[in-house]
Design brief:
This protein is of the alpha+beta class and 121 residues long. It has 2 helices and 7 strands, in the order ββββββααβ.
């Protein structure tokens, strides 16, 4: 994803899958505590849906919204951790495995992945 983007500017934007199908709306953005880099977005998948986490690294911000390089079904099947609290290292590992992403280098004791940057939660 482009650097230098205020993560709060993503909140409320529409999210689309790799084929352009609408997934939902970005509800929250989670930052890596060590770097401050936006790492995950929680996308509300429907009016009565839930929030599905999507990785921001391989995603693209367009004029239309956030485009993630995955099928809508894969996003909707992502593990459900709720929003508004930290992602634990174990939860983040589950997300990496779900999306088939390369695992980050061994986490250090002071690295806390997934601090919400703000949102409606």
């Amino acid at each position: 994803m482009q650097t230098g983007i205020d993560p709060r500017s993503l909140i409320g934007r529409k999210a689309f899958d790799r084929d352009g199908h609408r997934i939902g709306t970005v509800d929250e953005v989670y930052l890596d505590d060590a770097t401050g880099v936006p790492e995950w977005a929680a996308v509300r998948t429907g009016l009565f849906g839930r929030d599905a986490f999507v990785p921001l690294g391989p995603s693209e911000l367009t004029d239309a919204g956030l485009r993630v390089p995955y099928e809508k079904a894969l996003v909707k099947d992502a593990p459900d951790f709720g929003v508004g609290r930290h992602l634990s290292p174990e939860q983040e590992l589950q997300l990496y495995l779900h999306y088939g992403l390369a695992l980050p280098s061994a986490p250090s004791a002071d690295r806390d992945p997934g601090t919400p940057a703000g949102g409606s939660g």
